Please model this.
Amino acid sequence: EDFHNLIFKAMMKDSLNSSHPVSSAVQSSEQIEEMFDALSYIKGASLILMLKHYLTKDVFRAGIEVYLHNHNYGTAQSDDLWDSMNEITNGTLDVKKMMKTWILHKGFPLVTVVRKGRTVSVQQEKFLFRVEPENWTSDASYLWHIPLTYVTSRCNFTHCTNAYLLDQKSGT
Model:
């Protein structure tokens, strides 16, 4: 419950145009200090949980094991975790490409779902709680690769998982 409260606080901060990405290039020690805030940690943790849920617990764990083995007693770059996950998914999912859309963009998407009969349409756009004119920049080109999981009358979360990756502005 406490973690969910933190997530909602981080989302509120991240929904402002003055937010910052989880990962970005820095040139000064001040910029480094600015990157290590609650938004980076909580959003980062949420993204890891999202990835774990989408990949499944076993696949995620195997990716973590590859990552730890490959970088045992060494250093790692920002893409190394995603590369380790890609090793485990064997090209069925480009984890690096998906996760970069989350860590390199500030903010998060609003997904609108419309169901007509047996057809479900989804559309994404950047969510802004409040536009701050002094910090406004156009983020219309933002596109997230959003892992969506869902249940049907024949398949629920206890015996199978349906998944869809929304990697365009809209999909059906």
Remarks:
- The first helix runs from residue 2 to 14.
